[in-house]
Backbone:
């Protein structure tokens, strides 16, 4: 067994026998895949950051739209009446409100 290993060791190129190079290769493999801050982990964090930035942009847009609607509601009494009629089905005393609900078919 020892003789087989010795024959294999002799057939290896000299650059593979260099302990510094072997250590460097092992270090690179460790940093790319096994470390806590490996490249795989960094990629996951980068993709999560991109997703969070998209969500942030969406919510900022929603805030702008809601602020605009709020300002419109507080400034105009006609828009308040329209909002109350559409969302809360409020009516005047001399009116009837008919709510038509369409069932979704799958």
Residues:
């Amino acid at each position: 067994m020892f003789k087989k290993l010795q024959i294999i060791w002799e057939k290896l190129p000299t650059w593979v026998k260099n302990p510094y190079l072997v250590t460097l290769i092992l270090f690179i493999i460790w940093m790319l895949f096994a470390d806590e801050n490996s490249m795989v982990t960094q990629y996951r964090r980068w993709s999560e950051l991109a997703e969070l930035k998209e969500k942030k942009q969406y919510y900022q847009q929603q805030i702008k739209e809601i602020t605009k609607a709020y300002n419109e509601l507080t400034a105009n009494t006609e828009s308040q009446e329209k909002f109350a009629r559409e969302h809360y089905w409020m009516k005047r005393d001399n009116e009837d409100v008919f709510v038509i609900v369409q069932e979704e078919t799958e």
